[in-house]
């Protein structure tokens, strides 16, 4: 039986307007009523996931910033991972060679060194986030600031070029994921949704074959590789689809499959 369901947010549970479709919200309510626990897993910060959870008027487990943080429905932190020392500063300075706009994410802040970049209003509107200007951020990394993610925006070619550049200069210190069409996340090594989910399942004493997950992007692949019952959104890149078991058009479609599967298991 499926005891646990994990869903990505952007372009999976959330639509293009960063809203939850009513049928998906109803599906999650049905799943909870059937006794299946739920986890929201995203590249977004925990306070952003909490906002989505509040809209759903429910309490779920949550994995934020691609696995940097793992929290219970009550908000208890089970795991947190940040860049060691001044590593985030060195990565940020190296990435500046590519002239892409990026931000620094800590546990509860989304920082930019200045707000002069012309793409900021569009990004803030598109992602429904607000950047905090902090000119001294780089100097505080490893001291007052403990970054858990660096995020950059650009074309697909620009992002792949940045990934290659960072992997060349920091081969054993950084993992990177295309988390949205025009966005790449740089993470501490071995931090992913998959490693965070494995940690959470061990804590809950739930086996991977009793879990289902849904997602649409490269940062979801680590979950697909861990979980046998994986669902990928129909609009996903073919390379991402290749790692998932089933294709869906909505979270509610995955939920219906889970409910039917669990009925079959009871027979």
UniProtKB/TrEMBL annotation:
Cellular component aspect of the GO annotation: cytosol
Domain of life: Bacteria
Gene3D superfamilies (UniProt xref): 3.30.1240.10, HAD superfamily/HAD-like
InterPro entries for the chain: Cof, HAD-like_sf, HAD-SF_hydro_IIB, HAD_sf
One function term, GO molecular function aspect: phosphatase activity
Protein's name in the database: Cof subfamily protein (Haloacid dehalogenase superfamily)/HAD superfamily hydrolase (TIGR01484 family)
The species this protein was found in: Baia soyae
Lineage of the species this protein comes from: Bacteria, Bacillati, Bacillota, Bacilli, Bacillales
């Amino acid at each position: 039986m499926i005891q646990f369901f994990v869903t990505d947010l952007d372009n999976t549970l959330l639509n293009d307007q960063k809203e939850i479709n009513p049928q998906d919200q109803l599906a999650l309510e049905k799943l909870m009523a059937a006794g299946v626990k739920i986890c929201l897993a995203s590249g977004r910060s925990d306070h952003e996931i909490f906002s989505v959870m509040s809209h759903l008027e429910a309490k779920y487990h949550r994995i934020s910033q691609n696995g940097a943080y793992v929290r219970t429905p009550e908000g208890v932190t089970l795991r947190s991972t940040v860049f060691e020392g001044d590593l985030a500063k060195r990565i940020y300075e190296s990435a500046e060679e590519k002239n892409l706009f990026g931000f620094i994410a800590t546990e509860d802040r989304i920082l930019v060194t200045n707000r002069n970049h012309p793409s900021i209003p569009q990004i803030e509107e598109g992602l429904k986030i607000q950047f905090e200007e902090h000119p001294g951020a780089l100097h505080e990394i490893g001291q007052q600031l403990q970054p858990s993610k660096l995020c950059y925006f650009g074309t697909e070619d620009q992002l792949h070029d940045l990934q290659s550049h960072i992997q060349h200069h920091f081969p054993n210190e950084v993992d990177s994921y295309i988390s949205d069409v025009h966005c790449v996340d740089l993470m501490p090594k071995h931090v992913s949704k998959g490693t965070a989910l494995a940690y959470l399942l061990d804590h809950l004493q739930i086996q991977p074959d009793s879990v289902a997950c849904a997602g649409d992007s490269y940062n979801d692949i680590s979950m697909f590789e861990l979980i046998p019952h994986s669902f990928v959104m129909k609009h996903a890149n073919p390379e991402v689809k290749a790692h998932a078991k089933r294709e869906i058009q909505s979270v509610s479609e995955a939920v219906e499959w889970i409910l039917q599967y669990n009925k079959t298991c009871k027979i």
